[in-house]
Amino acid sequence: MTAIEEVLAECKRVVDHPYEEIDKHIANGKKVIGVMPYYIPEELVYAAGAIPFGVWGCRGTASEAQKYFPPFYCSICQMTLEMGLTHKLDKLSAIMITGLCDTLKAMSQNWKAGVSQVPMIYVSQPQNRFIDAGLEYTEASYRQVARKVEECAHGIIDDLNLHAAIALYNKWRAEMCRFVELAGNHPAQVSVEARTWVVDAGYYMDKAEHLELVRKLNDALVATPQSQDGFCRVIVSGVYEDIPAISKILDANKIDVVADDIAKESRAFAVRVSEDGDPIKALAAAWCAVSGDSIAFDPEKTHIDKVVDLVKDSNAQGVVVLRAKFCDPEEFDSPLIEEECKKLGVPCVVIEIDQSTESYEQARTQIETFKELIA
After folding, report:
1. What whole-number distance in Å separates Cα of residue 32 and Cα of residue 23?
2. What is the pLDDT of residues 134-173, one digit of tens each?
3. In which band, very low, low, confident or very high, does the pLDDT at 194 lie, cut at 50, 70 and 90?
4. Minimal CA–CA distance to 257: which of 321, 334, 350?
5. How far is the C-alpha of 108 from the C-alpha of 230, rounded, in Å?
6. Under a CB-based contact definition with an 8 Å cutoff, are residues 135 and 162 in contact?
7. Residues 310, 305: Cα–Cα separation, whole Å
8. What's the number of CA atoms in the CB half-sphere (13 Å) around residue 53?
9. For residue 275, what are the CA distances in angstroms to 45, 139, 171, 372?
10. CB atoms inside a 10 Å sphere around CB 299
11. Are 243 and 205 in contact, with CB atoms under 8 Å apart?
């Protein structure tokens, strides 16, 4: 087994058994705190000596959650609440939930009402973030969050540990950006499905361990001749892409994801936090600097420009928009992405995804037709 195959196999093992990772962290004497999407300052958890554990829902059908949510809520929130209500997350010491969309706001209160065994830490972040008051509000909010994290993690967040956590996360994000680029240049070695294993494993593992794993993978990819021969170069946009059925369809059609505009992937990796000065203020400033994201207030629609720039910079042949069902911010932006792609003369296909969907045969037909347009 090559170094590339070893790392991919380990990432797949972690993704297939995420609850085993929780058990491992606890066995190592660590508290584990769940972190929901999107821009929650995980560094606070790490600095308190605990492990942040990404919670982005799961594949399946919501039954208990339907008592709290109407059927037209996004599946990330539905399935995460389902996990809480069915006691799959009871080993978490707390869960952090932001309020960056209307569904997440309701999610936080439903969690508090229905999942009393796992304390909820609400992370309030202002959408009007480009003014001084936005930064001041975020900083005050993060200081409150830090105190609650300390209580749940049974640890102290001091400046030294927080600076170290910020430095680690900056290195991890840089290495993940490097991985995205290298994977796009080595589609024969890193399939679309394998690409998601590497990304998702980082939400379950200790970031220091995942960083070393990704470094090993990246070094092995650098030593491997790159080739995109026989593959179609594509940009993927959306909230998440880790739906195995979709990944398998993309792989079957020899799609190479040369870059992405995925909230769970490159949008998150693009964040950089200053390692100078007050660390909590630096975390707040990082949120206030976020731009080009459907989930963040974007009156000039720079998110659309970012997708267009990705197409140009990577010389992509097409764009695949994986639109999360009932995600209003993404639904507002996807027609604009289609329109701009049409102006560029670049084929674009929009595929609706949902964690509760069992069959993607219509998506298969869409992608096969899309492949004919760009091949």
Report:
1. 9
2. 999 999 999 999 999 999 999 999 999 999 999 999 999 9
3. very high
4. 321
5. 46
6. no
7. 9
8. 28
9. 17, 16, 11, 47
10. 5
11. no
β-bridge mates for residue 54, sequence order: 35
- Positive or negative, the CA dihedral 168, 174, 177, 179 is negative
- Are the CB atoms for 45 and 149 separated by under 8 Å? yes
Tokens linked to 266: 């490159």
With the C-alpha atoms ordered 59, 64, 70, 76, is the resulting torsion angle positive or negative?
A: negative
pLDDT beyond 80 at 69: yes
One-letter amino acid at 185 equals N
Compute the distance between CA of residue 293 and CA of residue 285 in angstroms, rounded to an integer: 16
How is residue 358 written in tokens?
């069992």
Residue 297, token pair as written in the block? 């207030």
Q: Please provide the distance, in angstroms rounded to a whole number, between the alpha carbons at the two ends of the chain.
A: 32
The three-class DSSP label of residue 83 is helix
Half-sphere exposure of 75 (CA within 13 A, CB side): 18
Look over the chain and give the mean of its residue pLDDT values, rounded to a whole number: 95
Tokens linked to 89:
């997350």
Instruction: List phi, psi (to 5°) of 38.
Output: -125, -60
- Helix/strand/coil for 317: coil
- Tokens representing residue 52 in the block: 């942040």
